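MODEL INPUT / OUTPUT PAIR
PAIR INDEX: 1
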Amino acid sequence: MNGLSTRVDIALLGIRVDAPVQRRSGAGPSDDGHVLIGGVGAAIPIRSDSPYLVEGNRLLFDGTDTGLEIEPVQRPKFYDLSTADGVSYEQIARLHGSNVLATTVVQTCIRYGEEQRCRFCSIEASLAAGSTIAVKRPDQLAEVAEAAVRLDGVRQLVLTTGTSAGKDRGARHLARCVRAVKAVVPQLPIQVQCEPPGDLSTLAELRAAGADAIGIHVESLDDEVRRRWMPGKATVPLDDYRAAWAEAVRVFGRNQVSTYLLVGLGEDPDELVSGAAELIDMGVYPFVVPFRPLLGTLAVDVDGATAPRADVLADVTVRVAKELRRAGMLGTDQRAGCAACGACSVLRSAGG
């Protein structure tokens, strides 16, 4: 097996490993353990039925050494701390990969009712389980970020949010959180993530607050797929996304704006790659990630959906990576965020 095919395989089939740092449920399309593959951060499903086993930091396939070294990310020191009012730091923000701090600043979403919910999302499941709190105050995030940088060498922060009923769709609370963190750790790069705000001037407010990069996540550029998988978000027209991306590129700069594109929702692979190329031409990084069914989501509990085939994921990823290289846009050139981390995607293994 070559490195790319193995990376694709484990992204879909998972691995058997004791991973102290894991992400269970939440706002995104991942439910993973965090490891280092050859020293590079990766978020890989932990599955007891996987043919891949990590033993002595080596990745074995049915007992045969694949040649890849995998090391579980260790539990960070800041997880052992709590705020003065008794809230665990781990409930406020989590370690992603080896050096990324991430949190959902508002853990509820106006689109979480079953008729509107994104079918791959379980944003409120972690809240119901008690593993997080509903709203993270700016001062709490600043406190946790300072500790994570000081104790665990965190190098970037990702702030996302459930969608609010306000015209800003939650962006203004993100801005307050960014300002608070930057006041304490001004050197820490921050990516914010939100839906296209109703007033695009809000994007400039986020930049002025100190945000270094932004993710405006559409997940699919196919309207039929959007209506089926994201009925609530699909009410926001793609033209609104395009206007927001264009303004975000103007405000944040080329390759400091990104969007998720999920492989496996039923979108034609050629059209997905073509759409990704259009985004790249705009200066937007298409963060191509395999759809993986999460426990607690409608995709599993109602639809019985499955992940994409390995050959489809590999083909799409390789072609999008080629377009990114053509445009001189690499995830590692982003200041902060999902593309800068790269752990949930295979793009970095394909040269993107």
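PAIR INDEX: 2
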Amino acid sequence: MCAVRMNAPLAASLAALLSLGTTLTATAGGFIAPVVEPVVAPVVEAQPVGDWAGAYAGLTLGYAFSGDDEVGVNGVSPNTLELSGANAGIRLGYRWQRDRWVIGPELGFEGGNISDDFLTDGYDAESKIKNVLALRLKTGYVLDNDILVYGIAGVARAKVDYSVTGNGADIRDEYTKTGYIVGLGAEKKINERMSVTGEYEYANFGKETLSDGVYETRATPDYHNIKLGLNFRF
């Protein structure tokens, strides 16, 4: 009997078909899905909240402007005092913190030259706020970049020198008057013990009637104040 001889290309093709058939038989029970590696989301770490709690003391330097006190003598209004000037102060406070919220009282004392005067229509008028003692409540929120932003509300007592003379009037008085302060501020840490502040405040001390027994006027001191400060944490 004669042997059947195959050429090399035909033999290779038959071998490939046999290998494919074996693979199909082995996987006839079902489709095997390819294995896909799970994608792991990157871990984002929460930024730590700075510690603002505790006692502190500080210094401030400010400039008051746009005060408005219309001087009226027995119903005659000769002119308006516009209080302005530099001021400096010291402060002492304490803060409590819960997560990012911060609240606390602050006692401050400020003095300077917040004043104005005029001479017109025979009247010579002058008003000067010599000093202010204030108790403020500051409520704020801590941002991620170690900045505390806050609102300001408080009660203040001012010592005022006031005079209106001329045309028969001679009203001179030094009085104290209680009013209020409101404002906004921001504080940035330099390190764990020191921080810088910037604040805007509006102070209003209501109305005070002053008289020399014959003539009278009504003082209405108020002003806006921009302050820079430096705090030292205990």
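PAIR 2 NOTE: The mean pLDDT is 87.
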